[in-house]
Structures are given as C-alpha cells and as structure tokens.
C-alpha cells in the first residue's frame, strides 16, 4: 500500500481539489485528525497536482476535523518554474479552515552533496526492542497503525502524573518507528506522518504524562533511500509560557538523513 492509499486521500475531477475522509484510523485518541496525517495529505495533494516531489512544506494548524467529516484540500500553484514549484494547500471542512500548508516542490541537477547531521551511534536494532503498547483509548487510531520501539525514553505508564515526582530528561528521545502498511514506500508523505512527534518529546523531556497540540509543523526533505524502519531523534529545545518547541531528525537504518521536522506545540499535561 502506498502512503496516499493509507491516508484514504481521493483525487477529484478537478486536479486542484482533493478529498480526505477523516476516519478513526488517521485520528488521535481525542477523536480528531492527527496533525501529521493532515500535513501528509496536503503534501500528497501538492505532489499529485504539481507532478513534483516535496522539498519543504510547512503547515499551520487552525482547527480540528473529526471522524465522519470530509476535508477538502484546495491547491493553488503560486509559481511554477523550470525546476521548482511554489504552491499552497488550504484544507477545510465546508467553510471551517483546518490547516494551511505552503510548500516548495521540485528537483535540481546539482553536482555537490553532503550530510553533516549523523545518526546516534551504537543503537540496538529495532526488532531487538519490545513494541510500545497501544493504550486502550487509542485502539483503532493512528497510534495503533504505527510500530514503535523506544530506544531512549520512558514508557507512558512510567511518567509522572504530578510535578513533585517528575524527573526531567536531557531533552532527547530516540525511537524506531514504521508504518507497516506502507513499509515498502517511505516517502515525504510517510515522513510527515512520522515526524509529528515533538508533542511526545515534550512529555518525555518534562518527565510528565503529557504532550501537546501542534501549532505548526515544517518538514524538510533530504534524501530518500529504501528502509524498513525510521529512527526518530526527537529533541526538545524548551518549554516556556505554555508552549513547547523542538524538532525531529529522521534517519534510515543505514544512517541516511531522510528529513527533519520542527514544531511548536501547545503544551498539555495529564494529571489522572
């Protein structure tokens, strides 16, 4: 299955409009569209309309879409050059705007290349680690569609429910992840889904059961190589004024930097 089929994204007779039926499969436990799936659908629509691959895309989250609703994605090609297309996607349910995405797409012939960000060394292989359990309230959601293996971090039930017993980390969480249904086709759309993990890192860094709701998400695509698993190197820079800021470096199993994703989130804690 490719990433577009996984999302359930549908083309229409108008190449500038796409439709995304919101299902529980691409939603979170709180019963609204997972932000990473929203960005992924917009990127897929942008690529489908422009015929070019995503270089960079940034989304601003404005509202929520619930299972049973249909998100219309309207594409505008702002500039179409020889090698690069600049475009935007407006995702809305009727007149309620959910997500706005700006993007650049294309490929250029350029003789030089390099990678300076490196994957952490001496990591255990993903299959040697236990799968992260899916909480009962998340059954059937996007969480249950992902195979996650925690390398550095604390499982949810071991995180504190109050500040007095919280132990803050160094701000880094490491986790292997994959979407088994699209395991053979890691692309920008897949990475947009996997990259929405700064909220998880907020809770991990604070040592608290919590996370947050995304205000934005920027995906920067580097190099695609075949890989079964993606290493999520989640780094939280700060949590202040009720907001968390951080990024995710996504590596293939061979150490290739696939993409980066950066976010600001509305930080939230759970006390129950």
Explain what you see.
This protein has five helices and 13 strands. It has 272 residues and is an alpha+beta fold. Strands 1, 2, 3, 4, 5, 6, 7, 8, 9, 10, 11, 12 and 13 form a 13-stranded antiparallel sheet that branches. A hairpin with a 3-residue loop joins strand 4 and strand 5. Helix 2 packs antiparallel against helix 4 (188-194). The longest helix is centred in the first third of the chain and has 16 residues, at 35-50.
Task: Write a brief caption for the model.
With 272 residues, the chain is an alpha+beta fold.
Layout of helices and strands:
Blueprint (H helix, E strand, L loop, with lengths): L2 H5 L2 E2 L5 E5 L13 H16 L3 E8 L8 E11 L3 E10 L2 E11 L35 H4 L1 E6 L19 E7 L9 H7 L3 H9 L3 E5 L1 E6 L8 E11 L2 E10 L4 E13 L3
Helix pairs in contact: 2-4
| Helix/strand order | HEEHEEEEHEEHHEEEEE
Overall number of strands: 13
Overall 3D geometry? globular
Strand count, sense and barrel status of the largest sheet are: 13 strands, antiparallel
Class from helix and strand fractions: alpha+beta
Contiguous helical run count? 5
Rg, Cα atoms, Å: 18 Å
Q: How much strand content do the residues show?
A: 35-45%
User: What do the pLDDT scores average to?
Assistant: 94
* C-alpha termini separation: 38 Å
Low-confidence stretches: none
Range of helix content: 10-25%
């Amino acid at each position: 299955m490719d990433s577009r089929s996984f999302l359930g994204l549908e083309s229409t007779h108008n190449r500038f409009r796409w439709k995304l039926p919101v299902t529980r499969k691409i939603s979170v436990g709180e019963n609204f569209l997972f932000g990473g799936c929203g960005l992924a659908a917009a990127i897929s629509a942008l690529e489908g309309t422009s015929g070019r691959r995503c270089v960079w895309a940034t989304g601003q989250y404005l509202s929520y879409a619930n299972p049973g609703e249909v998100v219309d994605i309207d594409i505008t090609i702002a500039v179409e050059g020889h090698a690069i297309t600049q475009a935007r996607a407006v995702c809305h349910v009727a007149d309620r705007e959910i997500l706005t995405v700006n993007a650049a797409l294309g490929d250029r012939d350029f003789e030089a290349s390099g990678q300076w960000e490196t994957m952490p060394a001496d990591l255990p292989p993903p299959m040697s680690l236990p799968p992260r359990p899916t909480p009962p309230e998340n059954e059937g959601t996007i969480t249950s569609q992902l195979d996650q293996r925690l390398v550095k971090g604390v499982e949810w039930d071991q995180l504190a429910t109050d500040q007095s017993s919280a132990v803050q980390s160094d701000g880094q969480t490491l986790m292997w992840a994959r979407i088994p249904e699209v395991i053979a086709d890691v692309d920008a759309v897949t990475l947009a889904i996997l990259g929405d993990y700064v909220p998880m890192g907020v809770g991990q860094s604070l040592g608290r059961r919590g996370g947050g709701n995304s205000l934005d998400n920027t995906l920067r695509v580097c190099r695609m190589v075949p890989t079964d698993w993606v290493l999520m190197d989640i780094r939280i820079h700060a949590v202040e004024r009720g907001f968390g800021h951080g990024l995710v470096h996504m590596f293939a199993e061979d150490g290739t930097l696939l993409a980066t994703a950066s976010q600001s989130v509305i930080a939230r804690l759970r006390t129950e």
